[in-house]
Here is the input.
Amino acid sequence: MKQKTKLINPLQEIPTTSRRQFLLCSAALGGAALTAAAPARAGTENLSIPAWSKRSGDPVLWHPYGQPSAQQSHVVRRTLPGAPVPGAGASWTPLQNLHGNITPNGLVFERHHAGIPNIDAALHRLVIHGLVKQPLLLTMDDLLRFPAVSRIHFLECSGNTSREWRAPVSNSVQFSHGLLSNCEWTGVRLSTVLDEAGVLPAAQWLLAEGADAAGVSRSIPLAKAFEDALLVYAQNGEMLRPEQGYPLRLLLPGWEGNMSIKWLRRLKVADKPFFARNETSKYTDLLPDGTSRIFSFGMDAKSVITYPSPDHKLRDKGFYEISGLAWTGQGRIKRVDVSTDGGKSWREARLDGVVLDRALTRFRIDWQWDGGPATLQSRAIDETGYVQPTLQQLIAKRGLNSAYHNNAIQSWAVAADGSIKNVHV
Amino acid sequence: MKQKTKLINPLQEIPTTSRRQFLLCSAALGGAALTAAAPARAGTENLSIPAWSKRSGDPVLWHPYGQPSAQQSHVVRRTLPGAPVPGAGASWTPLQNLHGNITPNGLVFERHHAGIPNIDAALHRLVIHGLVKQPLLLTMDDLLRFPAVSRIHFLECSGNTSREWRAPVSNSVQFSHGLLSNCEWTGVRLSTVLDEAGVLPAAQWLLAEGADAAGVSRSIPLAKAFEDALLVYAQNGEMLRPEQGYPLRLLLPGWEGNMSIKWLRRLKVADKPFFARNETSKYTDLLPDGTSRIFSFGMDAKSVITYPSPDHKLRDKGFYEISGLAWTGQGRIKRVDVSTDGGKSWREARLDGVVLDRALTRFRIDWQWDGGPATLQSRAIDETGYVQPTLQQLIAKRGLNSAYHNNAIQSWAVAADGSIKNVHV
Here is the structure.
């Protein structure tokens, strides 16, 4: 039975001989698999007790609503210059700094067409009208009283990766793939509310409209509305953030993010689509023959390596775990393959944790870097058998006029100095 | 084909007759099941376009790291007076305001013994020593280079609900059950790092010690360390918050929270437990015969109704969805039963979403409130067959000297005026 003494310097308990042996050994490791994770060090470790172990720290409730460490202040959403209209723009999620599948609410990407409306939830109303037996005017209290469900789903802007069609523009996965997040959403099944209103037999479509000044609206097939659409008021447990639609948004699992209308104020049931601005002049895909893909709702299987990626630098050869995210709007991810030679050979990655329907899936694979140039790629395969295409395959099918729905395989080139950049191979 | 006009007042599109009918109907609903969710209203809805729909809102990146709506400023962790030592204390998660299974990082409960140390992650070290072939001194860069896993698990302080043994003290689920959170954790399997160090044959236990001024330490059976213990650096995708152990904590799935040592600086491998302060004078359970349960690590099955609970008031009779959380340190939740008559009769609740191993599981069940007094209870049953006990059953077994591990069935009494309070029945 040994009684612990307070505030031991941990290193004082390592006999001097062991410590020397360890530091020597640590400095000598280098090539072996996992032990390469212990780098060479100068043997000049400061063995004194750090200041933070000597005195009581910040009190409980230092932040009643907690904040990240000040040392993590570089982990933020970022934007790009050039939004043409005040309030219109996007910010990207720092995927290079994230480690799991869940995106914390503070880092969920943004895409606004007329800024973030400052809505008073007590005055907000959802109207359901059109081809219904009984129009409804619902308060947030009403919506919170309906039966609810919680589901983890990804949300991806169909404009994600849109700058990468012609050249490898973004030298950060934040800007190449960061219009992407994955959260637990809680709300009412849209079908529950539509059943309350009583949809008439002629109904086929729905217009969903936001309460922002742009009045962003999209036509939604009624089948999707009844299949799995949610009227969402909470995200990762707490009420939606203002920039995510507070107090109410639509969520259409697996479909392009623009359709999951934020600040939702109106659902109009109709017999035809509405051909609103955001499904005609925008969010359509111009094909080589001059026609457009329209109502290209579903997001196809896609993946990207987030570590290592251009924001990182490999410090020495040896063991690394390559890690990234895979997702599909068509169900579950079945497999992710990873190449370190630009697609010549592939190895199957591990899918981490429980693979959920239309949710981000973290993949991981061991890699021994030999210190030479390497080209890293990942390729997602979903449960329908669909295989994420190369950029060449995608361009062959869709041409170079498309902005949206770029789900091509991404390549990162590792240089001998450990630096990494975005390349087309 | 209909072209949408911008900034329609949604209500202007509802013909006057329909609107009148709706408001009348809405006012007349009352008793029917779901339609009771649409309350009587005065018919004086302000039909003008709200200010937030008329002008562009706050720009993108209003907060590079996002924050909740100012209207949700009441949704915070809270503390209680009386912590005896500066920096020692707890804050409770507002379960009454949460809607899903995930706890957002800003609302994860706190329990500190000497405050929150302000650790420089670049200088932080983890020492692994004792009965190992090769002592290790690891930087955060080292730890981030090891293979990682992400897992969703609950964390509950074994002191959760400790004030409720003798009387129903807390008139809020925040204070009765809020030392409880559920996050996605990412880090290295402890077994991976122990294998690097090479555990010697005599080893049976591990001392885990924090770098806070209290040097909180606990003895951990080596079997648990190898089974599923994690060295965690990320929580809900981002790096740990300072109050959750930044930059490194232990995570022992399903075991009492105190053992998941925060600010982890040392792991010492030994042949015996260490009998440290937090497993002898604290975190043991004094039994009626004067002996103590010691090393009572696992958290037994428990559940609590979070809506409605004492922070809420039912506004009128009719439909409500009762909702709450269930969890067990022994695996998965198999079933949750709910009673609205103080345990005389029970109905099986729906388990929402994918039921995960040692994670919070949201349960939901429909309820027609008849406007009279009611006593709400939930009872969790886990996959081992263990049934959450009544308080009487728990006291019969453990007496009234125990502070920790109160997993009794919680009762909320609904009064005819819709108010709710904590009761013992």
Observations:
- Chain B touches chain A through 154 residues (CB under 8 Å).
- Residues 302-423 of chain B form a domain with the Immunoglobulin-like fold (CATH 2.60.40.650).
- The longest strand of chain B covers residues 180-189.
- Confidence is low (pLDDT under 50) at residues 1-43 of chain B.
